[in-house]
Amino acid sequence: TAAGSRCLLLLLLLLLLGVLGAPALGDPGPLEDVVIDRYYIPKICLREAQMGDFIRYHYNGTFKDGKKFDSSYDRGATVAGVVGVGRLITGMDRGLQGMCVNERRHLIVPPHLGYGSIGVAGLIPPDATLYFDVVMLDIWNKNDKLQITTLSKPEHCNRTVENSDFVRYHYNGTLLDGTPFDSSYSKGSTYDTYVGTGWLIKGMDQGLLGMCAGEKRSIIIPPFLAYGEKGYGTVIPPQASLVFSVLLVDFHNPKDGVFLEHLEVPESCKRRAVTGDFVRYHYNGTLMDGTLFDSSYSRNQTYNTYIGKGYIIPGMDQGLQGVCVGEHRRVVIPPHLAYGENGAGDKIPGSAVLIFDVHVIDFHNPEDPVEIETVFRPEGCNVTTRDRDFVRYHYNCSLLDGTRLFSSHDYEKPQEVTLGANKVIEGLNRGLLDMCAGERRVLIIPPHLGHGESGARGVPGSAVLRFEVELISMEEGVPEGYLFIWHGDPPASLFEQMDLNKDGEIPADEFSAFIKTQVAEGKGRLMPSSDPEKVIADMFQNQDRNQDGKITPDELKLKSDEDREKIHEEL
């Protein structure tokens, strides 16, 4: 029957297979292709090895029984080559394709895809199945370009790196598999060099272009733009792709000058600082990455100096030219106009660009006079103040930045002073001369006519002062050294007229009564004062030479007579 015929044919086929040595049941027989076990796949795989790619990898090669026949680890060097172009045994060529960097595979390579029936004398027997444990370390292609990823970038970027710029940057350098080979952070200093002049590997030269200070980048450099076939020392193998994580700290060009940014300029700027002026200013000094290296605010004291005279770094000498009082200015100074290659102390590195945010408090010139602005002058002003006059005035005193210092309005009475008596600062004394009662002025007083370099209580050293003054009243004064002057010739018998009770001596009350009568009758006048009684008492004390409480004829002398006798006392 048909069914019987089919059973007979199946039996004959089984007998034939047995004669030919067919594998036993459960044996899969010789492998036709490479067996690939991807036992570790990275979470991130940016690239897979393709035919024609150049790769670097490590491997262990064993037989089925686990006996090792070869290992790149034992040789201490990775294997590098092109995949898929016949330079490797076919099984390895196939097994490596599609791998990611850091991927691990087990490969089983049958003999016909390995070393076949010939093997390798003394190493691999004929018809050997080969077992490889492979880790992929690097993949690149001759058509690759630099891979740049911006990790972070400052909001404000006025300038980017160009060829011939000098850069300072931090970096971590790793191989493509993450193996670190170098880091500037571990050295505690930036890497400093010129860009585009051949001092760097080509890939870094290109990768730094267009960066802003403070920017972070990841730069992946293929070997032909790095160290190529030779590698570098023991840390960078031949044909290694390099990954740099870069933070650009600062950069400049040797041709750079000082860069100025006018942050805030007062609407009214009557005068700008020039060479030879003495400037008081506050500042914050930072590096280009924002690191603060110095601040006058932290010392609660301005920095005071002449500009254009070489007392400060050249960049600041230039940067303060033309400032206004009250101006806020940013001064960016390249290192060749600052502290150069050596830096300063432990806070300013060599070749560092410095940024100063400056607030100008005031400035003056040692030749400056008192600046007088008349705000109001009454009509019909015929009588004005002169030296030795006694004046009453109100004032408000402040620094040029508006900081209030003193005011006569804080007291019950106006300020009183005799002009030219060295009772007020010289600038104020000059500013009060030639004023009418009721006149108002603004005085700008430089420190050499104010409180000088040392300042005074509440007044900083070398401060320019601003006074708003109003003259309330004035009284005609007397010459220096006099407490009283006669309007005409004094009486010929002065003692007899003073000695009211004719007892041959003049006590204090008689002396006082006589002087007051002369003043009342317009025959003479006292030195102006808020306390006339004290002036008269001083006059009496000067005449009472033996201090016995009375004046005798021998003691009484006119000031003019005393001057002739070179006795410097007064009447």
TrEMBL record:
It comes from the Eukaryota. It catalyses: [protein]-peptidylproline (omega=180) = [protein]-peptidylproline (omega=0). PPIases accelerate the folding of proteins during protein synthesis. This is peptidylprolyl isomerase. Residues 52-140, 164-252, 276-364, 388-475 form the PPIase FKBP-type domain. Keywords: Calcium, Endoplasmic reticulum, Glycoprotein, Isomerase, Metal-binding, Repeat, Rotamase, Signal. It is an enzyme of class 5 (isomerase). Transmembrane segments: none annotated. Residues 494-521, 531-566 form the EF-hand domain. One of its GO terms (molecular function) is calcium ion binding. Residues 538-571 are annotated as: Disordered. Residues 545-571 have a biased composition (Basic and acidic residues). PANTHER family: PEPTIDYL-PROLYL CIS-TRANS ISOMERASE FKBP10, PEPTIDYLPROLYL ISOMERASE. Residues 1-21 form the signal peptide. Its main location: endoplasmic reticulum. InterPro entries: EF-hand-dom_pair, EF_Hand_1_Ca_BS, EF_hand_dom, FKBP-like_isomerase, PPIase_dom_sf, PPIase_FKBP_dom. The keyword Calcium applies. It is found in: Endoplasmic reticulum. The keyword Membrane does not apply. SUPFAM superfamilies: EF-hand, FKBP-like. It holds the Pfam family EF-hand_5. Its EC number is 5.2.1.8. One of its GO terms (cellular component) is endoplasmic reticulum.
